[in-house]
Structure formats: structure tokens, C-alpha cells
Amino acid sequence: MSKLLAGAAAAALLFQPAANAVHGGEATGSIAAAADISQYEKGDVNCDGQIKISDLVLLQKWLIGAGDSELNVSETADICEDGRVDIFDLTALRRLLLSKIKGLDKKAPVSELAPAMSGMGRSRIPVFAVEFPDYCEDTDFAEQVKQNCFGAEDKDESFYPLESVPAYFDRASYGKMYLECDVMSYRAKEPAETYVKNNSLGLAEEIMSEYAEKLDLSAYDANRDDILDSMVIIVPEKLLEMDNNGDKIPDWWPFSAKYYGSDTYDGVKLGSYCVIPYWRHDRAGTNSKIAHELCHAMGLTDYYGTNQETGSDIGSMSGSAGSELMDEGSGDLSAFSKLMLGWITEEDIQFYTGGEQSFTLNSSQQKPSCILIPRDSEKGLLGEYFVIEFITGEGNNSACFINGLRSTLFSKSGGVRILHCNAEISDGVFGKDYKYGINSPDYDKTDEKQRVVRLVNDSGMFYPGVRGLNYRDVIDSANEEFRWYDEEGGLTVDTGLKVKISELRPNPNYEPDPFSGADAWGGDERRLANDPDYLSGATYTITISQVGS
User: Which parts of the chain span the membrane according to its record (predicted)?
Assistant: First the structure.
């Protein structure tokens, strides 16, 4: 085989599942990991007007005889235009796809922390459904985990938007992250209690040793640095009953850890790993915790505070406007998180640069959009700034779950929120870390001073909100949270700015149903919450100006 053909074959094999693995999160038409194209062009194998990962998988299956034999790919897949469809077209399609993933070639701000796992492009991780001699499941544990945690997107599923971890990340990243998960069974050699100490490191190393002989671990090294990006260890729910130190916190509560050892397994070093119990009656809770811990592997930190009286974690961003996966664990990731991960790129950010400026703000659940007010533009996204975003109760914000029961997170129309962010980086005990993260020595344990992100909105309600209930359409330094931090970390430095928020405006092309007017919905607020056509493409106008102007 020639070197060129061997390289093409390797590109094809890159998208094959690992041997002996139960594979979840296959590419489907719902994974929109590519840019729209304005006209028909080669590479759109399934002829839906887009080039995306599903086209690549479809062509690969067709080439190996596993796809639809009736598929007409003579025009759509002959990318090399040589009159035939072969492995060279597959390689060309892969190259074309990568070139169309916006921002893939740019480093995300969080890369300064050297996270084990990237949030950009294709990520492939192994998932191990682990049973122990003294803790076993009475079903096919790996198959159950695969179906309930790592399947395809299903908007009709009762646990949507937490029906699938890969689907959650696809929506959150606007298709910029494509997560594949190979789910495998593993039976630990020792009782569960043996592995509790040292963040279950012994269990992670045992699994790596076992599977180094069974798997090509380099398949889980996206950037080819000989470090396995991350892995997920799912353990039986019964382990939540274990509390050997009597602190009333389960010994097997979900966590994510970086590997700082030097051991390698078939030439690959472990990067990070997550351990999560499987709540069999709370699928949504399990998936939100998996997503949360994987965000740690990608470099995000916890946004919640710590209650000094009880020692327990508390959400730092209260109310409906404070919903965030990295805070209390509900809803979509905020614009701040998406900025750090590179999902909202420089082209999507509207920067306030001085004087009076007006901006049009779209829902960040519909498209990447936010406004940035920097304190020091030289520091960019790793400094102090305010982020203004419009969030709606759609997509990953469409529901939350309490003990497995579905509940509305907030009204579908949502509103505007302002986040005060400080993403400064400093040298931590184990390398670079957020200077004001909750585990940093620079963090103020009262939770009152500098922190990575805090909510500006009064009482955690949206701006402008419902009239009569915290309605405010102008925000200035009268709100303590809308002040810069001083040298001691206090919120005392006047921004000298005011932010004015307009009423929500529908898409200019919106045409109300004459038989379903405002009165039929019960007023404007009801219509906003119930009429999806009104909300689609709706915007706020945000005007930022100097106080006194």
C-alpha cells in the first residue's frame, strides 16, 4: 500500500469505534458540527444543504458496504472530481469538514490552563461502567449507561435536554464540539472501599493497565501529545451509601481529577478522569453531573461558593437568571463559559469601547452572541470584564430536574443577565489555575470578594423582567455588583457606566396569528412565553453610555 493510500485509510479508521467497545454518541444529522453553505456543493452527501460530520460517517459507511446501497453519491461525494468515489474522496471530505468548523484552528482562552481535554472539534473518550466484587448491578450496566447517557439527541425524550451528554455539548457549543464516547464494562479486582483513598486513583490506574492491552489508547488522544484526554468512570448507585469518614458526604460523590503521575500505558499517559455514580432513577441528574465534570476536564472551574458554617457548597448565582451548569448544575453553560471554551469566538462578541454604543443582542441559546465590557482590553478574556447575554428557556435551558422529576427552569422568554467575570490566571500548586477560583489561596472564603464569575442581577431575576416584579431597564453602579473590584477585592470602583435595556423585539419577519393575539395568550408576557415564532430571532437592544451623558 502506498504511503498516500495508507494515510487516507488511517483518516478513515480515525472515525471507527474502538475494538470490543459498546459505542455511544454516534454522529447523526442532529450533530451540526459544520458551517452552513449557501448553495449546493460537493461534500453534502446526504443532501441537506450542510456539510457536517454525518456526511463523513455516511460516506465512510457507504465505502465499506455498511451504508445505504441505494444512496446516490456519484455527484455529491466525488469531491476529487475524478469520476469515482473512493478513499481519496473520504480524506478530502474530512479536510473540507475541518476547514469549515469555525474557530477550530484558534486556541480557546482556557487553553492557558493546559486542560487535559479540548472543547473544540472532535473529542473521543472511553467510558467505563465499573462494578465491584461487593457492588454489582442486576442489569447489563454498560449497555444501560450507553443508552441513557451517551445516545443521540432526542428532543421528544422526557429527559430532554439532559437525554444525552454528547447532545448537550453539541447544543451548548453550537456544533463546535463533537463528543464520541466508547462505553465498556470493567469489573474491579478489589472491593469498592479499597479504591476510595486518593481520589480513586488506584482504580483509574488499574483500568488503564487492563485496557492498555485491549485498546489503542492513542485513539483517545485528540491532539497527539501522548496524553489520554479524559476518561469517565461510572460506578453503581449503591456506592453513594458509603461514608467511611462520617462527614455526611458520600465517599463516591462525583468529581474530576487531573493525573499528576508519570506512569504511561502503552506509551500513553492518563490526562484526567471523572468518577460519577449512576443514579438509575435520575437519568438527567446523572447526565448533568457527567457534563459538569467533563467541563472541569476541559478547564472550567466551579462557580459556586462555600458556606463556612456548614462547609457545604452553595450556588453563587441565585434565582432563575443564575442558572449555570458550573454553578448549581442546572441549565446551559453561560456566555462566560462558552467564551472560555472558544465556543463564542471573537467574531461573535460585541465589544464596548467607550462613549455611547448600542448593540443588538440575540438569544445565546439560538446563536453565539454576547456583549463584553472590558476593564483592561490588554488582558482580553483572561482579565476582568462584564458579559451581557440574553438567555431563553430553549435548548439546554428548556427544563431542569429535581430528584428525577421534570420542572421548568424559567419562562421560555427568559431575559437579559449581566455577569461580572474575573478570569485572571496565576500559578497554582499544580500549575496554572484561576486566581480567584474557589480552591485558590487568593479566593476570599466569605464569598463576598473577587471570584471567577458572579451575577449582577438583583435577586437573580432577569432584566428587564416582568413589570411589577423587579422591573429594571437601567443598570449602573447603584447596583454594587456592577462595580469593578478594588485592590482588596471589594466591589467599590465605580464603572461610570449605565446599561439601558429595551423591550424584547420579535424577529422583523414575525407575523402574529390573527386568531392567537395577545389577548388570546393572556397578554404580552404570556405570548412571549408561549408563541415560539415570536421568540425565534427576537432581540434586545442594549445601550451602554457614560453616566451623566
Answer: none
